[in-house]
């Protein structure tokens, strides 16, 4: 991991291009994407790349020997589901590294900003302790963040019903 500070700036035109690309992606995917709750996801059997040969073989055999398929199975629907799943898997594979790198960059930038802000706060604390003019107001403003954190940590957990 690089210990160098990141220095990133975005031109307004670049942000507009990124936003337009995301808008286009969302618009293209919106008609087909659904949202499941965590419980719904847990309840569903999960397919993976390891499942693909089985699914493909079952589909091939179902198309070749439809007499073995129960009446409630939609063989054509199975083919559509498999093709769409493979297409979305491909899209997801392209998006995953981008999302991972976006998250990593975001964590690094946030960390850098927080560490720098803490360094400033420590300097303000020292100035306040030394009675330097103007430090009191800055100290009062900045220390509120830590007082809120301490108050939350000290608050006893509510009993479970």
Secondary-structure blueprint of this entry?
Layout: H1 12-29, H2 38-43, H3 52-64, H4 75-129, H5 135-154
Tell me briefly what this model is.
This protein is mainly α. It has helices spanning 12-29, 38-43, 52-64, 75-129, 135-154. The longest helix is centred in the middle third of the chain and has 55 residues, at 75-129.
Structure explained in plain terms:
By secondary structure, the protein is mostly helical. The protein has a domain at 48-152. The chain has helices at residues 12-29, 38-43, 52-64, 75-129, 135-154. The longest helix is centred in the middle third of the chain and has 55 residues, at 75-129. The model has no long low-confidence stretch (mean pLDDT 93).
Note the main attributes of this structure:
0% strand, elongated, 70% helix, 161 residues, mainly alpha, 5 helices
Number of helices: 5
Bulk shape:
elongated
Percent helix among the residues? 55-70%
Strand fraction: under 5%
Largest sheet: none
Mean residue pLDDT: 93
Q: SSE string, helix = H, strand = E?
A: HHHHH
